[in-house]
Amino acid sequence: MDYKIFRAINRLVGRYPSVDAIMIMISQKARYVYVLLLILMWFRSGFYKKITIQAIISACTTLLIHFFIKQFYFRPRPFVNHNVHILPPIPSGMNSSFPSKHTMLSFAVATSILFYNRLLGWFMWLLAFLTGFSRIWSGQHYPSDIIGSALIGSITSIVVNVIRWLWNCFVSCVMHSYNRICAFVRMR
């Protein structure tokens, strides 16, 4: 079933060059939208600084989980075992298909922001969904890789949000240090 869904999506590659170009752009450039939004949020207000820190903690935790999964589990990418249409850039066949780092990080950050800002969070969730879909379209991941990665990224953010009392002191320390550095720079 996983391969059938993959084929149904991937066989469209090459038929619609403009969609191919959009999928390549989303797959490779969406992460810059996330970084830009986090930077803009950081400079907006103290409330948004806390959201940014929570999103960064979720992203770092997700990267750690990604690293551990890659150490113990390997699933060949679709283009290794099947004749598929693949869009650039072509990843190494030695990289595991599961989990998708792009998708995990996108959903981790989007979910973190969704807790505090619904409009921006839903926009970022839509972008995360498109990121995952573009990875299937481009022949780099199976649908189950994307669904699993989206769940891991989202659940990681939920857990980080639930246990934020553990790292609330860390966030307060970062905010206090940042404010003191800014005040010191203004005095000079």
TrEMBL record:
The keyword S-adenosyl-L-methionine does not apply. Residues 55-161 form the Phosphatidic acid phosphatase type 2/haloperoxidase domain. The lineage of its organism: Bacteria, Bacillati, Bacillota, Bacilli, Bacillales. SUPFAM superfamilies: Acid phosphatase/Vanadium-dependent haloperoxidase. This is Undecaprenyl-diphosphatase. The chain crosses the membrane at residues 21-45, 51-69, 104-126, 146-167. The keyword Transmembrane helix applies. Pfam families: PAP2. Keywords: Membrane, Transmembrane, Transmembrane helix. InterPro entries: PAP2/HPO, PAP2/HPO_sf, UPP_Pase.
